Amino acid sequence: MKRRDFLWSTIAATLAPRVSLATGTPDLVAQTVTTQILPEGSYPPSELLGFNGSVPGPTLGVKQAETFSIRLRNDLTEGTAVHWHGVRLRNDMDGVPMLTQDIVDPGATFDYRFSAPDAGTFWYHSHYLSHEQVARGLMGPFIVEENEKPDVDHDIVAMLADWRFDQTGALADDYGNMHDVAHAGRLGNYAKAFLPDVALQKGQRIRLRLINASVDRVMPLELRGIDGKVVALDGMPLATPRDMTGLVLAPAQRADVIADVSDTVEILLVSNSDTFALGALMIDGQVPKRSSPVAPLPPNMFAVPDKVSQHLTLKMQGGAMARGHGGDNIWAFNDNSDLQSAPFGTLSRGETVRITLVNDTAFAHGIHLHGHHFYELAEDDSLGDLRDTTLVQAGAKRDILCVFDNRGRWMLHCHMLSHSVGGMKTWVQVD
Ligand code: C2O
Ligand code: CU
Question: Which atom of ligand 1 is nearest to the CA of 123?
Answer without folding.
Answer: 1
